[in-house]
Amino acid sequence: MKITTTLAKYMASLVAVALLCVGCSGDDERLGRLKVYNWGDYIDEELLVEFEEWYAEQTGEEVEVVYQTFDINEVMLAKIENGHADFDVVCPSEYIIERMLRKELLLPILTEEFKAEIKEKDIDYFGAVSPYIKEQFSLLTAAEGVDPNDYSVGYMWGTTGILYNKRYVTEEEALSWSLMFSQRLQDKIFVKDAFRDVYSTMLIYAKTLEQREAGLLGEDEYLSLDTIRELMYDSSDESIALVESYLKRMKELVAGWEADFGKEMMTQEKAWINLMWSGDAVWAIDEATSVDVELGYAVPKEGSVVWFDGWVIPKYARNTRAARYFIDFMCKPENAIRNMSATGYVSVVATEEVFDALEELSTGEMEECDLSYLFIDENGEPLEGSECVMVDAVLYPDRSIIERSGVMHDSGDRTDKMLEMWSRVKGDNLSTGMLVGIILFFSLLLIWGIWRKIDKYRTAQRYAKRRHHHNRVK
């Protein structure tokens, strides 16, 4: 493990240097450009062109959107924090927004001047964001007097749960995290390579079992939402060790830790369960139907994570005016509907227009869900019919699921401890066969290299002898 850790630190140093070089690259033609940095496959890209036209109509200024994508929150953050990259709009997850607030890496979005400007033009769409989402963003830790909602505007949200193959796993089994430790599923389990989501869900599960063993919870009882929310802040040595012990048990059964390929593994039936995000689950369920594979998604009853991604303006942004307009444009209900259709994720925009679009898509095959927590009218009351609506329950979780799901938080200086634990768990996740194979491969490579050197030496010797003989004959 010392070699692995040293190698990891060396690689991390190389990445940091590379990001610093990228972030510091010169750009003398930034005027009139808007640099957007978002997750891959996370937007209707036709909207980017339409924004350029809309922005010109609203301001009389031309703008060109330069769109780039990332796959990992921490890579995006490193570019901004270490490389001072001048992205104008970025879409990190909630705990990264919290970290960026703590490190003063964000500029306010909703300044009084900007709010007055868009209200005068009658293009203020920030009010379309659900009050529920704003409430969750207000839970992010920030300096005294700082409202996180002034520095971040929600974009998409969802849950973390278990995607399962209905041929091999029942819904009842998938409604408990204990499924991740099922011996009969060995080598058919994939886990999202997202240490925060995995740590948080496993901590909830471990603490549930602890309280049951202590007699504080019955077999059919679960942690309260307040307790789950407290656990979202818990990165103590004791909790990290507890989660590590569970993950080391799980890793003996896990076929792989996946960043994005888990969806394909499920549709191809190479995996039967996958700890993953709801949006990825929707994609996999849809794709699986075309190959006669039936997948389901469940959020375990012990509790889970409800996650949020939101737009922010980084400290080193250079086109802040266009950035603010861009975020407002993405909150337009019709644009929110298009983005949901293109990505398979759920927008934070929850207006009557969005609700009507949901009802139009409702079918008898969908589930009846209580979404009254999400769709609120201008008087603060649930929209009529939102207590009982037929929707895709994977995309739109029922109130009962929301009431057992917490929001993740930044662990500050403790993050390194969590990452070290995650590296330990994944780093020695090699079976004996895999280790033997790796050793054999490098041994053969070494032998081949030695043989090549010997062969070259012998060839040189024969050539030298021939030259010597030829010279003597002469």
What features would you highlight for this structure?
474 residues; alpha/beta; D-Maltodextrin-Binding Protein, domain 2; 8-stranded mixed beta sheet; 3-stranded parallel beta sheet; 19 helices; 48% helix; disordered N terminus; disordered C terminus
Task: Describe the fold and architecture.
This protein is 48% helix and 15% strand. It is globular. The chain contains 19 helices and 15 strands. The longest helix is centred in the C-terminal third of the chain and has 42 residues, at 432-473. The model is unreliable at 1-29, 429-438 and 466-474 (pLDDT under 50). Strands 5, 6, 7, 8, 9, 10, 12 and 15 form an eight-stranded mixed β-sheet that branches. Strand 1, helix 2 (46-59) and strand 2 (64-70) form a beta-alpha-beta unit. It has a domain at 2-156 and 310-377: 3-Layer(aba) Sandwich (D-Maltodextrin-Binding Protein, domain 2), CATH 3.40.190. The protein is α/β, with parallel strands linked by helices and 474 residues long.
Summarize the structure.
This protein has 474 residues and is an alpha/beta fold. It has a domain at 2-156 and 310-377: 3-Layer(aba) Sandwich (D-Maltodextrin-Binding Protein, domain 2). It is 48% helix and 15% strand.
Oligomeric status: single chain
The helicity comes to 40-55%
Distance between the termini: 63 Å
Radius of gyration: 27 Å
**Corresponding CATH superfamily of one domain:** Periplasmic binding protein-like II
Structural class comes to alpha/beta
Shape assignment: globular
- Rounded mean pLDDT is 87
**Largest β-sheet summary:** 8 strands, mixed
Q: Tell me the number of helical segments per DSSP (H or I, 4 or more residues long).
A: 19
Give the low-pLDDT segments. 1-29, 429-438, 466-474
What proportion of the residues form beta strands (DSSP E)? 5-15%
CATH class of one domain: Alpha Beta
CATH architecture of one domain: 3-Layer(aba) Sandwich
Number of strands: 15
Under CATH, the topology of one domain is which? D-Maltodextrin-Binding Protein, domain 2
